[in-house]
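Hi R.,

Here's the chain you asked about this morning:
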Amino acid sequence: MKLKRTGSATWFGGFELGHGTLSLPSGKRHDRFYNAASRFALRSGSNPEELVAIAHAGCFNMMMSLVLLEARLTANELHTLATVTLDERFANFGISAVHLCLRADVPGVDAAVFRRLAERARSKCPMTRLLHVPVTLDVTLSSEWGKSSEFAAMAS
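And the predicted structure, written out as tokens:
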């Protein structure tokens, strides 16, 4: 089976003062404005790395649910925050790493077993394999909620 999905980008003007939109054809997300300031200066607007992060988090959650199914488990909730790192080295930019933080509510699973299942999902995830960069993973089960400061920051 081969599936093809598209997204598009339109850019107007030069690098520093130019701007553009990032569009997803599903219609579920409105066109997102982007420019150099939204990418490099953390100003309002979107950027390609944000879209990679969204795609990676969604892809990982789907693979995690499949790995759970194979283990005869079902999640009540999987929430993944993906952080994509864009680095500049020797005047070249590149994505150098992705960090996934999974917060999960999965009844009846041992924490150590769940961590192994999450690692399996990370290694099988198509986005992980596509990027060819280190992808790290932190896992927090619902029984451990409140112990991770990263997720407290996510909620705000």
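The CA atoms of residues 22 and 73 lie 37 Å apart.

Let me know if you need anything else.
M.
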